[in-house]
Structure formats: C-alpha cells, structure tokens
Description:
Blueprint: H1 2-15, E1 32-37, H2 42-55, E2 59-65, E3 77-79, E4 84-87, H3 96-100, H4 105-113, E5 122-125, H5 126-132
Parallel strand pairs: 1-2, 2-3, 2-4
Antiparallel strand pairs: 4-5
Amino acid sequence: MKYLTFAFAVLALIGCDTRTTLPNINFNAPTLVVFNDVGGDPYEYAALWIRLNETGKEVQLGECNSSCTMLLSLPRACLMAGTRFGFHKSSGLVREEFIAQYLPPGLVGPYLSTWSKSTAITRFTAEELQAMDPSLRICKTQPLSAR
Length: 147
C-alpha cells in the first residue's frame, strides 16, 4: 500500500511540474527575438504565438527547431538570413495537424506529407523556406546576438 501511495505522490509532483520550454524573450524590446531555440511543448508555443501576435511587434526568428517553427506564421515574423529551421515528427500525444495549423500555408503540405513522418530533423535555411512560401520574409537587420 505504501508503494501505491508513493506512486501517486510522484505522479502528482510530475503533474505539478512548472518548468517551461519557452525561449527567454525580452518583451520590452522594440523588436522581439527568438534565436537558437530547440522547441518544446507545442501547446506552450501555441500560447506564445498568441502572446507574440498581441504585441504587434516584429518577431525575428533564427536557428529555430521543432515547436519553435510554429512561430513562422506570425504576421510580423521575419527569418534571420542564413539561419536554419528544423521540422520533425511530433512526440507524445500532439498530432501533426495541431502543429500544421500554426505553419505558413506553403509549408503545411510538405510538413504533413514528409517532414512530420520522421523523428529525424529536416532542416532548411531561411532562404529555402522563403522559396517554398514567398509570404515568409527575410529580416532586413539582425540582432547582435545572432551575428
């Protein structure tokens, strides 16, 4: 019985885990920067998408993988020239369709048909993504942290 109680206690602690997988963003800056981000929980990134969109500020993205790529569809997002973006099969209970709804239209087809089928990361440069979806734009300037 004490082992069962211990198991429930551990599960309760895991369920209360307050760690986040989100990038550290300076929301007070005139331009928001997400750089060198490995991704994380897609539901947290969906909430971040809403928060970033509400600021109305430009969001510069670079070296962005996994759930971070959900931010590519932000209306004021731009991609840092020469940086890379990685896509792969979602892990856990998250369906690929959930992630796809946050991708730019030109990337949804390739993501659902190919990139989301493998746990290996498929990477593209900002320029390659822009060629696939011309609505994506390359940033005119880059923050010092990304140079």
